[in-house]
Design a protein that fits this description.
Two copies of one chain form a homodimer.
Chain A: E1 6-11, H1 23-26, H2 29-42, E2 49-54, E3 66-69, E4 73-75, H3 83-92
Chain lengths: ~100, ~100
């Protein structure tokens, strides 16, 4: 299989009992996922960037949380409007969006 | 925050519409998550290894799928009984479980 260069994980508060409720979900995390998919497609990055929704990362007060591997960069309080900046700066230019980074 | 040394993502077929159905879920992926949590606790690895459930990785025919970052190692057809080997070989000894690896 072809592994992605960047794998972006977005907490959508998906629980293993099938429930989807929690802080990130309540703060529009599903729209964050959708914006990533749109931006990745628009920038022709579908071969390089994979997007995956997840359950809780355990730091809900920093949510919505987005984690990018393999670098292990954690972003906090992400909004749908932040997505284009992450795509352009991080995935196209290889730089972190420092204002959103959890240190 | 303290970042995990290993971050293991287990597909539990969690969909962003709140449904949880799909191949990995049907093949006992929730038990895989639970076994990881038990083994990580039993081996006192809670500071080093984080477990997160996810939605579909898009390679359902290889499921249940488990992905370990930052290495980007993808494991296929994982069963609950494989978990102790992944914990011991990969997280304790730093080696991949080659028989499960998706190349």
């Amino acid at each position: 299989m072809r592994k992605p260069k960047y794998h972006v994980f977005v907490c959508t508060s998906s629980r293993i009992n099938g429930q989807q409720k929690g802080y990130c979900f309540s703060k529009d995390a599903v729209s964050i996922i959708q914006r990533f998919m749109e931006e990745i497609e628009a920038n022709e990055l579908t071969d390089e960037v994979m997007v995956t929704n997840t359950g809780c990362f355990g730091i809900c007060s920093s949510g919505p949380v987005v984690v990018v591997y393999p670098e292990g960069v954690w972003y906090k309080e992400v909004t749908p409007d932040d997505v284009s900046e992450i795509v352009e700066l991080h995935f196209i230019n290889g730089k972190k969006v420092e204002r959103l980074e959890i240190k």
